[in-house]
Amino acid sequence: MLLYLTGMWCCLYFLATLLMMTYKSQVFSYPRDYLVLDLTLLLLMGILEATRLYFGTKGNLMEAEVPLAASLVLTAGSALLSLYFLLWQTLVLWADVVLSATLLALHSLEAVLQVVAIASFVS
């Protein structure tokens, strides 16, 4: 259930962040190099999230440790990108903080539950 919720939130996050980057590039002086970097990292995050959710769902349904472990590793990478968008992107708006903090909380909860699931599948 949490994988489904996170998948929906990631879609909302991706679209909202893309729209906010468009807004920031029009209203503020957003350097082109940093805009390209932020857009590239957002695209990478979208690909990483789709792969992570695929492996997480597959591992959960099959009760297999390897796909869940792959999803756990990808969760760490996705959490780092969320942290980037929370703290280090060029222009951080209040909406960026709310969206990224919520995504980080979901990733943290998911990581804990993935570790518990892997431990239960092994034994």
UniProtKB/TrEMBL annotation:
The keyword Transmembrane helix applies. InterPro entries: Uncharacterised_TM-17 (IPR019184). Keywords: Cell projection, Membrane, Transmembrane, Transmembrane helix. It is a multi-pass membrane protein. GO terms for cellular component: ciliary transition zone; membrane. The chain crosses the membrane at residues 6-23, 35-55, 67-87, 99-122. It holds the Pfam family Transmemb_17. It comes from the Eukaryota. GO terms for biological process: non-motile cilium assembly. It is found in: Cell projection, Cilium; Membrane. This is Transmembrane protein 80.
